């Protein structure tokens, strides 16, 4: 049944997402073409080109921003509606609260990743004329020659981003599930207040964790205030250790928060569901 919920969620949201991605890619392609056709000199043609190029760049920026904003709105609205009037249909289905959550969560994470990939790819397309791909190899080899491991940093960064996406979506879900029980007279108001409480708690935890890490790695931070022009192997090792420990701490923290958010959501959906 979970697979059917996921399939339905993808079908219900695919059209608007695919249309948005198409607009972003087309505008990126137009901007890339305009950059490659840039006229020389300050003729009237150059002035017309500058006006068109500026307008298209603005449209592309708006479209790229709108894609991210739309992704967040759809993720929130789809879950919020399930806990409202649509809930009288959704919660008559023979599925568990866990399946209801994952039926929304998995498509939300997938669409967020796809939106990010499309945005990055479109930026790469627009800036391709500056020949940035040819710079990746030398930069990678330079970092490796200094003692860094770009592959490890890249993988760790991607994992951290994925966990960050997961925790953000789950905190939205937890706030929307808790909200109607927090302020019974206003489901929307309760959800907003619940999210503010959760967000503030998250920021406090992040601050505590950051302060702890600063104390633990105080020597490294003091050394990095005056970074020499040439890093020694000890400097690189210290930076690698600090970065991995920092990333590891916050990754574990976010993963725990995502699990807590899941259990909060499941608790209110399963035992204290309020569809009013």
Summarize the entry for a quick read.
With 276 residues, the chain is mainly α. It has helices at residues 2-36, 44-82, 87-90, 97-126, 133-145, 150-182, 187-216, 218-224, 233-271.
Task: Describe the protein in words.
The chain is mainly alpha-helical and 276 residues long. It folds into two domains: 1-130; 133-276, no CATH class. The protein has nine helices and no strands. It has helices spanning 2-36, 44-82, 87-90, 97-126, 133-145, 150-182, 187-216, 218-224, 233-271. α1 packs parallel to α4 and α2 packs across α6. The chain is globular and about 65 Å long. The protein starts with a helix and ends in a 5-residue tail after the last helix. The mean pLDDT is 81.
How many helices?
9
How many whole angstroms does the radius of gyration measure? 24 Å
Oligomer: single chain
Largest sheet: none
Helix content: over 70%
What count of structural domains?
Answer: 2
Order of helices and strands: HHHHHHHHH
DSSP strand tally: 0
Task: Specify the overall morphology.
Answer: globular
Mean pLDDT: 81
From the helix content, strand content and strand pairing, which structural class follows? mainly alpha
Which stretches of 5+ consecutive residues score pLDDT under 50? none
- How many angstroms does the end-to-end distance come to? 26 Å
Beta-strand level of the residues, as a percent range? under 5%
């Amino acid at each position: 049944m979970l697979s059917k919920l996921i399939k339905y969620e993808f079908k219900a949201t695919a059209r608007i997402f695919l249309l948005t991605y198409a607009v972003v890619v087309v505008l990126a392609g137009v901007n890339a073409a305009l950059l490659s056709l840039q006229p020389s000199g300050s003729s009237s043609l150059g002035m017309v080109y500058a006006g068109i190029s500026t307008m298209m760049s603005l449209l592309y920026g708006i479209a790229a921003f709108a894609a991210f904003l739309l992704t967040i709105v759809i993720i929130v609205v789809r879950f919020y509606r399930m806990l409202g009037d649509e809930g009288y249909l959704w919660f008559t289905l023979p599925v568990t609260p866990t399946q209801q959550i994952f039926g929304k969560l998995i498509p939300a994470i997938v669409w967020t990743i796809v939106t990010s990939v499309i945005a990055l790819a479109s930026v790469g397309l627009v800036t391709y004329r500056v020949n940035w791909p040819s710079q990746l190899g030398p930069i990678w080899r330079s970092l490796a020659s200094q003692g860094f491991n770009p592959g490890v940093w890249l993988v760790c960064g991607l994992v951290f981003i994925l966990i960050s996406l997961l925790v953000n979506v789950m905190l939205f879900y937890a706030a929307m599930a808790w909200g109607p029980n927090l302020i019974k007279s206003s489901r929307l108001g309760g959800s907003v207040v619940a999210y503010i409480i959760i967000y503030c708690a998250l920021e406090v935890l992040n601050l505590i964790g950051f302060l702890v890490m600063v104390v633990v790695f105080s020597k490294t931070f003091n050394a990095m205030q005056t970074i020499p022009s040439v890093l020694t192997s000890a400097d690189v090792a210290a930076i690698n250790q600090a970065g991995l420990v920092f990333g590891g701490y916050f990754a574990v923290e976010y993963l725990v928060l995502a699990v807590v958010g899941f259990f909060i959501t499941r608790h209110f959906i399963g035992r204290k569901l309020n569809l009013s």
